[in-house]
């Protein structure tokens, strides 16, 4: 999923897409800053990545599996959710649709 997120960030950031990666650790040793910052740099991730060590974001959005992609519209409403890998074409189509919406 990370390679596709990098592509979407490059392609759509200038027209309003904001990607925020959320690292919710499965194991206690994944909670340290270096366990997140190192891979972010190594994978060339240029969008923000937050650490969700207390699982607050995970619970807020009702996430139950890694990876989960969620698209939130300009009003803060969850409009799309995909659990697992794949569905890149469907996800990108929804990104384009949401970006095309006007207030």
Question: Concise description?
Answer:
The chain has 103 residues and is an alpha+beta fold. The chain has helices at 2-12, 33-42, 56-60, 88-100, and strands spanning 21-23, 49-51, 68-72, 78-83.
Molecular structure report:
This protein is α+β, with helices and mostly antiparallel strands and 103 residues long. The protein has one domain (2-100): Glutaredoxin (3-Layer(aba) Sandwich). Helices cover 38% and strands 17% of the residues. The chain has helices at 2-12, 33-42, 56-60, 88-100; strands at 21-23, 49-51, 68-72, 78-83. It has a two-stranded parallel ribbon with strand order 1-2.
Radius of gyration: 14 Å
**What is the H/E order?**
HEHEHEEH
Query: Structural class, from secondary structure content?
Result: alpha+beta
User: Any low-confidence stretches, pLDDT <50, length ≥5?
Assistant: none
Percent of residues in β-strands: 15-25%
What is the architecture at the second tier of CATH? 3-Layer(aba) Sandwich
Instruction: Using the coordinates above, name the CATH class.
Output: Alpha Beta
Q: Give the strand line-up of the largest sheet.
A: 1-2
Average pLDDT over all residues:
96
Largest sheet: 2 strands, parallel
Helix content: 25-40%
**Total number of beta strands:** 4
The CATH superfamily is known as Glutaredoxin
Q: What's the structural domain tally?
A: 1
Topology readout:
Blueprint: H1 2-12, E1 21-23, H2 33-42, E2 49-51, H3 56-60, E3 68-72, E4 78-83, H4 88-100
Parallel strand pairs: 1-2
Antiparallel strand pairs: 3-4
């Amino acid at each position: 999923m990370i390679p596709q997120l990098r592509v979407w960030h490059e392609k759509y950031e200038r027209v309003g897409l904001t990607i925020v990666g959320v690292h919710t650790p499965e194991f206690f040793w994944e909670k340290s800053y270096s366990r997140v910052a190192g891979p972010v740099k190594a994978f060339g991730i240029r969008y923000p990545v937050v650490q969700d060590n207390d699982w607050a974001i995970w619970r807020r959005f009702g996430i139950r599996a890694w990876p989960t992609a969620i698209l939130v519209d300009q009003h803060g409403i969850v409009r799309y959710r995909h659990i697992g890998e794949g569905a890149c074409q469907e996800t990108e189509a929804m990104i384009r649709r949401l970006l095309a919406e006007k207030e």
